[in-house]
Specification:
With 422 residues, the chain is α/β, with parallel strands linked by helices. The protein is built from 15 helices and twelve strands. It holds the Pfam family Glycos_transf_1.
């Protein structure tokens, strides 16, 4: 039910460019819950086009920023701030971490200045508006959201709540080159609640800022299924699918190396990969696959729109989803596979083990698993009896139905935004 409340949603890019595909579903529930939704994508530039449609009560603040390497350096130069530098000097952390803190805070400040100018020019809210601020990431968008709240409160607006989700890179300090993420306590102390999408993320934040742990609780994302029952897969041969951006931490080379061993052992297979990446690295992966695998045994689909992914799974009758990433939040790609009753082989990182239960709906592996051992896991699953395989398929679908349904998860999340109960 709509009301007299306005939600300000801070994203990196959505609904521009690509990424943050999970919001394509959630935004519909948010727009049904709030009378007005304002999306502020803080990392878009003037060359990016809007790629996702939104409801009529959703408006977009078109903020043009430059977060390229050159742009980030310019932000640091043009927004030099001695007071921030002096405060960071007092922190009991290493010099490299202090540099990271300074970089993060100055970049956030520079981004906020651009957002503030556009917000004041383009957004005119009645003074009696009840405002809710929702940061999609516990990083740059959170810092901008905190500054936005201060700005609105100074202008006598009522900001009812400010919350943030937390996913992967924005909460997993172990995946960072310094094993450190900046401003954790500051961000959390200025949020009403922070909602990691995984138990791993929840534990990470509570361990880092134990005095504020009551503000942290898991709220899972959700996906929609295009089926109301599980599929029975014939599982006649190894038919693998993977879905991710093409970048080093996704370990796509390991999949290629594993399938190369399939060929050496005369094992029939087919593999399709959905997703793209930076042109140079994607070309490198394509070249590597061409060198190691037989043409026709694999196919790179490139970027596939979120709404089309599951139709590919259905039309191609794939039998197994694979993800050997080094870092994850709770992987939406695995959630989508479950919604199509696909068993999964996935690396036990981040929040993956929240949903993949070894031997029940899939198989968990160490992300450092060798191609030889990974192949054995694939063969083991593929050699299950039809009854055992379809039991695992059923369990995959039941996992989606009970834990990962977008309707259940997003409706509950929207109600919590309004009610204030964690």
């Amino acid at each position: 039910m709509k009301n007299n409340k306005t939600l300000i949603l801070l994203t990196n890019y959505f609904p521009f460019w690509k990424g943050e595909e999970y919001l394509e579903s959630e935004i519909n529930y948010l727009s049904e819950t709030f009378e007005k939704v304002i999306i502020i994508p803080v990392m878009i530039n003037k060359n990016m086009k809007q790629t996702r449609a939104v409801s009529s009560n959703v408006s977009i603040l078109n903020v043009s920023t430059d977060h390229s390497l050159k742009g980030k350096i310019q932000m640091l130069i043009y927004n030099w701030n001695g007071s921030i530098k002096n405060e960071i000097k007092k922190m009991p952390i290493s010099f490299s971490k202090k540099l990271f803190e300074y970089y993060f805070q100055i970049r956030s400040l520079a981004t906020w200045k651009i957002v503030k100018d556009e917000f004041e020019k383009e957004i005119n809210l009645p003074i009696n508006t009840s405002i809710y601020i929702y940061s999609y990431w516990f990083y740059l968008t959170s810092m901008v959201g905190i500054e936005l709240k201060k700005h609105l409160v100074d202008k006598d607006y009522e900001v009812k709540k400010i919350i943030s989700r937390a996913h992967g890179y924005d909460v997993n300090e172990n995946a960072n080159f310094l094993n450190y993420l900046p401003s954790r306590e500051y961000l959390l102390s200025n949020m009403d609640f922070v909602y990691p999408v995984s138990t791993f993320g929840e534990n990470m934040l509570k361990m880092r800022v134990p005095n504020l742990k009551e503000k942290v609780a898991v709220r899972k994302l959700g996906v929609k299924s295009i089926s109301n029952k599980f599929f029975q897969h014939e599982n006649k041969k190894i038919y693998l699918v993977s879905c991710s951006t093409i970048r080093p931490l996704k370990n796509i080379e390991k999949i290629i190396d594993t399938l190369s061993l399939c060929e050496k052992r005369g094992i029939d297979y087919k593999w399709i990969h959905l997703g793209s990446g930076k042109m140079s690295y994607e070309k490198k992966i394509h070249k590597y696959a061409k060198k190691k695998l037989t043409e026709g045994k694999y196919e790179f689909y490139g970027y596939v729109k979120n709404k089309d992914v599951m139709n590919v799974y259905k039309d191609k009758e794939v039998s197994l989803f694979i993800n050997v990433s080094e870092s994850e939040g709770t992987p939406v790609s695995v959630m989508e596979a479950f919604s199509m009753s696909l068993p999964v082989i996935a690396s036990d990182v981040g929040g993956t083990s929240d949903i993949v239960k070894d031997g029940y709906n899939g198989i968990l592996v160490d992300f450092q698993i060798t191609p030889q051992d990974l192949l054995e896991k694939i063969i083991d699953l593929n050699n299950f009896s039809k009854e055992k395989y379809n039991e695992m398929s059923r369990n995959a679908f039941l996992t989606w139905q009970t834990m990962l349904s977008e309707e259940k998860n997003y409706q509950k999340f929207c109600q919590e935004l309004l009610e204030g109960d964690i």
